[in-house]
Amino acid sequence: MLCIFYPFTDPYLNLATEEYLLKEFKEDIFSLWQNSPSIIVGKHQNALAEINIDFVKENNLKVVRRLSGGGTVFHDLGNLNFTFLMNGKSDQLVDFHKYTVPILEVLLKLGIDAKFEGRNDLTIAGKKFSGNAEHVYRNRILHHGTLLFSSVMTDLSAALNVDPLKFQDKAVKSVRSRVTNISDHLLQPINLFDFKDMLMKHVMQMYPEAELYELTDIDKLNISNLAETKYSTWEWNFGYSPKYNLQRFIKTEGGKIEFDLDVENGIIKDIKIFGDFFNTKDVSEVELLLKGCKHSPDAVKERLLGVNIGDYFTRIGAEEFVNGMF
Questions:
Q1: What's the distance, Cα to Cα, between the start and end of the chain in Å?
Q2: Cα separations (Å) of 33 from 3, 11, 36, 182, 217?
């Protein structure tokens, strides 16, 4: 088994590292890694329906889709992620409990009575500190999980605070749980670095053939290319979302505006705009202009370049109009 500390904190690079190690390596692998503040979306989810878009914009958070299913999670440097990449028979690969045992054993050494509960969660006193997800590739399983150690809970809550009535779609929705940090339950305080080191040593003791591995320059180049061509792209992170209908309602100085959008593969297929606003030009011209546009703020802004929004929506600015669609 190869044991790896990822050298990155960029979520694009870290998720690219997982896929690269899954598909290009044959060895069993255990790794530990951390992301700078970001939102990681399950493979089958509608990214926009899972995030607080205003908080994401204000804090310049990266939103990244991962390979595995399950729900959306908030990452910061107080959260430790672990990944097992293991070979096996196809009918024996999926086992959520098996890959969380080392976590529970380490916490028990620290005097914490943690439990595996439900389908894929680890809890302390009924509160969740770890969510887990899996992805099968040929004869290999990718199992990864979060470990809330000293995360900023207010940021976690704010980043994922979404209006559940805004979207109508068939995407898998995240179920919010009561959460807790591991550090709040320690009998003797330790820092995240020591906890990470303790966990790695424990796994290496479980697998006597385990050895530490450092990513080579070639590894890093391949990972960087994958991050650039896939994990940092709008097409993967937002365009991959399932078909959805978005309904938004905003109040402005010029009146009320209601947006009704049908979006497929991240592209606006149809849009209707209603409200009690005044106008001098036909609103249908704006609707027609936005059909076929990516459902992203930058793409909508670009599509509306040269358009005087005030002609269609009196006393309503272009920025205000665009923000209303998200």
A1: 45
A2: 11, 10, 10, 17, 18
Residue 225 amino acid letter: N
In this structure, what token pair is assigned to residue 65? 């889709």
- The Cα-based distances of 17 to 9, 83, 149, 244, 287 in angstroms read 11, 11, 22, 30, 41
d(CA 235, CA 202): 39
Residue 216 is classified by DSSP as: -
Q: Give the ranges where 177-266 is alpha helix by DSSP (H).
A: 192-206, 217-226, 234
Q: Which domains does the chain have, with CATH numbers?
A: 2-239 (3.30.930.10), 244-323 (3.30.390.50)
| pLDDT one-digit tens code per residue, 211-230 | 999 999 999 999 999 999 99
* 180: amino acid identity, one letter: T
d(CA 23, CA 66): 14
Using alpha carbons, select from 272, 240, 237 the residue that is nearest to residue 257.
272
pLDDT digits (tens, 9 = 90+) for 78-135: 999 999 999 988 777 888 899 999 999 999 999 999 999 988 899 999 999 999 999 9
* Rounded Cα distance, 314 and 164, in Å: 30
Write the Ramachandran bin of 40: left for phi over 0, alpha for psi from -120 to 50, otherwise beta.
beta
Q: Which helix (H) or strand (E) holds 84?
A: strand 79-87
d(CA 298, CA 107): 45
In the chain, count H helices and then E strands.
12, 15
Structure tokens at 219: 């590894």
